[in-house]
Amino acid sequence: MNDRIVFEDVSKFYGEILGVNRVNLSIPPGITSLVGPNGSGKTTLMNLMTGLVRPTRGRIHVLDYKIDDPENLFKILGYSTQFDAFPKGLTGYQFIYSYLRLAGRDSQSAEQMAWRAIERVNLVDAAKRNIAGYSKGMRQRIRLAQALSHDPKVLVLDEPLNGLDPLARSEMIALFRATAAQGCYVIISSHILHEVDVISDQVILLSNGYVVAEGKIHNVRSEIQEHPTQILIRCSQPRELAAKMFEYEHTIEVSIHKDEHGLLLKTRDADRFYLALNEIALKGIDIESVAPADDDVLSVYEYLIGNEEVVR
Amino acid sequence: MKRIWWAQIKAVIRLEMRKTFFAKRGLWIYVVAALPVMLFIAYAIATSSQQNRSVSVARQGERPLAYQDLLAVKTGMTSQEVIAILGKPPITFHWTENRPPQTEKGASLEVLHEDYHYSDGQNDLFVGIADGKVESINIHQGNNLGQDSIMFAGVFQFFFLRLAIFFGCLGIFMNLFRGEILDRSLHFYFLAPIRREVVMAGKFLAGLLATCTIFVTSEVLQTIAFLWHFSPRARDLYLYHNHGLEHAAIYLGVTVLACVGYGAFFLVAGMLFRNPILPAAAILIWEGINPFLPAVLRQFSVIYYLKSLCPVDIPSPPGTPPVFALLISNSDPVAAPVAILGISIVALIALYVSSLQVRRMEINYSTE
Questions:
Q1: pLDDT above 60 (res A311)
Q2: Same domain, B261 and B363
Q3: Nearest-10 crossing angle of helices B244-272, B166-173
Q4: Sequence-distant (≥ 6) Cβ neighbours of residue B52 within 8 angstroms
Q5: Residue A47: its chain B contacts at CB < 8 A?
Q6: What is the pLDDT of residues A157-178, one digit of tens each?
Q7: Are residues B319 and B283 in the same domain?
Q8: A229-293 topology per CATH
Q9: Which residues of B are less than 8 Å from A101 in CB distance?
Q10: Which CATH class is domain A5-222?
Q11: Which of A104, B19, B136, B324 could bond to B4 as cystine, CB 3.0-4.6 Å?
Q12: Which of A53, A71, A104 sits opposite B362 (nearest CB)?
């Protein structure tokens, strides 16, 4: 029994164009975000995972299923693609209902499940309207409803928050969290980093078809040695604290916060910094709080990929 | 077959019917299917009108005539002899021709021309008389089911089968996958828990349902239009005592088999080729040159079997060059069961190739 989504040395070339190369991944349950600039291979990875494209090399398993077995794979997997096209002439309800009938559901259960999925994405009022008249956000939501409609264990969502208003975004994020909390696998691609940071249990950073980092964001950050760790310390005597910190050779840079109630410190060795801070605190400097300042997706992304084409 | 597959096939058919029957880009298929119907309606109207005229001419005659009476007139007879046999002509035309002199000093010659029009109420006789003697005879036969059924067979074989059904199937079956790739909506099927082969089977059956409905309806209407202008007695005689009903049923069967054969061909062509014109042209040429192919290759064709099943042989007109005669006649027909089996095997091979192809298909719209 396999409980992971596994990529084993997977490469995909479109003719001579690289999609992804030598990807090895093992994705656990929870929310996993694929992060990377346009053309980095996020959608290719999702299409590979769902069998819409086949790997040029390597093997992919989604839990216990092979990607060339759609009959069984899509019983446990729902995919909301970026393709913004629908079968012609269908209403939102018919779109979901037809999908469930294709899945072999009988009329009654397909109807019930379709309405339940439509309710989950708050599209009941527009469900009987033709999709051709939907706004971009509504089309995004009906695609999400399709992916969710058969209660899949694995949910693959390509840019699922695109086109949604802030309220809808927060509703969808709550939905993803609730789904992940049930032990499901939610794979999201996004280039909106602060949202990724908020919702992800783990991230996969992609650049030019290569996976440059994967795992929990803190672990990824701690492995980036060439960039010093930034730590925000709130205290009443920032200048004294700064002076003491410079006595340690691992301290690289310190800047006093504008409000004179804190400082931002860059250190080459976070573990030794925390030991030093304990010593300093014992010497009478009152420390209010200590928090990492670059232990987030945005920072990791900038360190590993650069700051191209991302939305903060 | 698993029960769920059949349920899924029905779901695919439901989705496809809307596209195959009501797609704007498929309207021309209805026009192509309607063309032979229009032809037979026009023919029926023209023939009925001609028949009414014949009856009117017959009524105007001095006495009722039989077909044998019309045949009694021969060239070289005098006009008096013609009138003696058939009576005074109900309709006559005459004019004078000035023939140039035979010699330089000779005078020009005036020749009186007369045209007599007789009718027995069904067949018309046109007698051309020049200078008092019968010069030409033209008998125009009225309703003749024998001749008309050959005409019907000609329209069926050379227009309906080879062009209407051929291009109709091309329009519908080639678009089953290709159309959705161009619309960028094929992934809808590929994201459902359904075998790709089941999607293909559903699409094929939807296309078959659409083409059979359109072309079988056309064939039924053609038969009705074809028989419309005959008297009820002639129709009964043809349908129930002269294999007419059997022929009509065979034409419907051949229509269905044509849809199966060409449908399977174009389904696989739509998956293998981006540009439908090239495979369509290739298949059209392949079907066209079928009579000239070696016996082994001839079997890998739809028209070879369909021609063998057609109930009426079309005779080549006298003087037809052998090459064209080969195109018209079916020199090497196979028995009906062999033809049905052959077309089924050809279709199954095409569907098998389609099933292999559909399993390999990737969604990569940007390359289309």
A1: no
A2: yes
A3: 40
A4: none
A5: 363
A6: 999 988 888 888 888 889 999 9
A7: yes
A8: Alpha-Beta Plaits (3.30.70)
A9: 7-8, 11, 14
A10: alpha beta
A11: A104
A12: A53
